[in-house]
Amino acid sequence: MKKLMAIALTAAMSLGLLAGCGSSSSAANEAPASSAASSAVSEAPASSAVSSAVSSAADEAAASSTADTAESDLEYVKANGKLVVGITDFEPMDYKDESGNWIGFDADMAKAFAESLGVEVEFVEIDWDNKILELDGKTIDCVWNGMTLTDEVKSAMNCTGAYLNNAQIVVVPADKADQYQTEESLSELNFAVEAGSAGEAVATEKGLNATPVKAQADALMEVAAGTSDAAIIDSLMAAAMVGEGTGYENLTYTVGLSTEEYGVGFRKGSDLTDALNDFFKSAYADGSMQKIAETYGVQAALVEQQ
Asked: What's the CA gap between 128 and 90, in Å, rounded?
C-alpha cells in the first residue's frame, strides 16, 4: 500500500514538474510582451513628465508672447520717468530760444502732454531721414515735429489724428519772385529739400531737380547763400521764418505745391497714440491748445479735435 502511494506521489510530482516546465516555457515566450507592458508602465510617469514639461513650456511661451504683445509704451515711458521726443530745428514747431531751451507749438504741446502723464520731456534732435529707425530702436518714444501724415509714415508708425493743416510751398529770392508764380515756371530750378520730408516727396512727384539736405532750415540757408535756386518747405515754417521781420527778409514764398496735415508718430501698436489723441481733445476743449497755437502764430491752421 505504501509502495502504491509512493508511486502515485512520484507520478504526481512528475506531472507537476512537466507542468512547471511548460509554464516556464510559456512565460519565456510571453516575456517580451510582459517586458514591453512593464516597460510601458515604468515609462508612463516619464512620458507624462515630458508631456507636462512640453505643456508647461508652451504655456510659458504663450504667456511670454502675450506679455510682448501687451507691452505698454505708456507704462514704459512712465517707468523711465520721461517722454523722449524726436525733433529737428523747425520753427515754429520746435526751435531753441535765446537760453537754448526748446520751444515752439509742438515743443510746448509735448511738454504739456508729458506733464499730464506725470513724466519729464526730453527733446532729441534726429536725422529726419532716420526717424523710423530711431523710433523702432527706442532711442526716441515719438516723432513730434510737424510731421506730414504721408502713406509711408502711416504704414511705418502708429499716428495720431491730424492736429494742424499745412502745405508744401516754394521759397525763392524776393527779387526773383515774379518769375516763379506757376508750377510750369519751376522746371529749370535747382531745389534744396529736407531729406525724407514731404518737400522731397513733392519734388520727386513733380519731377523737379532737388538736392536733399539735413533739415528745412538748411534748405533756406542754401537759397539765401545762392547755392540753390529755391527750396520746398512747410508753409507754417515759411510763414515764421521768411519775409519781412524774419531772419530771411530777402526770401519769399510763391507757389503752393500740395496740402497736407500734421500728426505725431509712435511705435506700431503703441498705446501712447490713444493717450495723445485723448489729450488733444481735452486740450482743444479747454482752450489750452488754441492758446499755444496763438503764441506761435499757427492758430489758423489748427484742426478741430473731436
From this structure: 11
Task: Kindly give, in sequence order, each residue whose CB lies less than 8 Å from that of residue 16, ignoring residues fewer than 6 positions away.
Answer: none
Tell me how far apart the alpha carbons of residues 285 and 267 are, in angstroms, rounded to a whole number. Answer: 27
Contact between 210 and 223 under an 8 Å Cβ cutoff? The reply is no
Task: Please name which of 38, 148, 37 lies closest in space to residue 90, comparing C-alpha atoms.
Answer: 148
Region of 130 (left: φ > 0; alpha: ψ -120 to 50; beta: rest) is alpha
Centre a 10 Å sphere on the Cβ of residue 254 and count the other Cβ atoms it contains.
Answer: 20
Q: Does the predicted TM-score (pTM) go above 0.85?
A: no
Q: Do the beta carbons of residue 24 and residue 30 sit within 8 Å?
A: no
**Distance (Å, whole) CA 105 – CA 292:** 6
Does 55 score more than 90 pLDDT? Answer: no
State pLDDT tens for residues 128-138.
Answer: 999 999 999 99
Angstrom distance (rounded) from CA 80 to CA 186? 49
As a whole number of angstroms, the distance between CA 187 and CA 269 comes to: 42
Which ranges of the chain does DSSP label H, i.e. alpha helix?
2-69, 73-80, 105-117, 131-136, 151-156, 198-205, 216-225, 235-241, 272-285, 288-295
For residue 293, give every residue at least 6 positions away whose Cβ sits within 8 Å of its Cβ, in sequence order, or none: 105, 299, 301, 302
**pLDDT tens-place string over residues 204-263:** 999 999 999 999 999 999 999 999 999 999 999 999 999 999 999 999 999 999 999 999
Q: What are phi and psi of 263, to 5 degrees?
A: -145, 170
User: How distant, in Å, are the alpha carbons of 35, 93, 103, 231, 279 from that of 112?
Assistant: 77, 14, 12, 33, 9
